[in-house]
């Protein structure tokens, strides 16, 4: 199982996103739905786990 640890820039919570595709090294932030904010926010990518 591959997943990313993301941290929302709005609420600062860290959470896990399961992904089925590899992360590009230059990828350091992601605009994605935050389950805590319940809206799309910018996230920092903390960790990439395979
Ligand atoms: Zn959030």
Brief description of this entry?
With 50 residues, the chain is mostly beta strands. It has one domain. It is built from no helices and four strands.
Describe what you observe in this structure.
The protein is an all-beta fold and 50 residues long. It has one domain (2-49). The protein is 0% helix and 60% strand. The protein contains no helices and 4 strands. It has a 4-stranded antiparallel beta sheet with strand order 2-1-4-3, with no helix packed on it. A hairpin with a 5-residue loop joins strand 1 (2-8) and strand 2 (14-19). It is globular, with a radius of gyration of 10 Å. The mean pLDDT is 88. The chain binds zinc ion. Residues 8, 10-11, 13, 34, 36-37, 41 line the site of zinc ion.
In terms of DSSP E residues, the strand content is: over 45%
Q: What is the CA-atom radius of gyration, in angstroms?
A: 10 Å
From the N-terminal CA to the C-terminal CA, the straight-line distance is 6 Å
Proportion of helical residues: under 10%
The largest sheet, given as strand count, sense and whether it forms a barrel, is:
4 strands, antiparallel
Strand order of the largest sheet: 2-1-4-3
Order of helices and strands: EEEE
Specify the overall morphology: globular
Named once each, the bound ligands are:
zinc ion
pLDDT < 50 stretches: none
Question: How many individual helices?
Answer: 0
- Helix and strand content put the structural class at mainly beta
Number of strands: 4
Counting copies of identical and different chains, the oligomeric state is single chain
């Amino acid at each position: 199982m591959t997943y990313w640890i993301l941290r929302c820039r709005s609420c600062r919570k860290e959470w896990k996103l399961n992904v089925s595709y590899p992360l590009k090294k230059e990828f350091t932030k992601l605009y994605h739905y935050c389950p805590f904010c319940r809206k799309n926010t910018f996230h920092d990518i903390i960790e990439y786990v395979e």
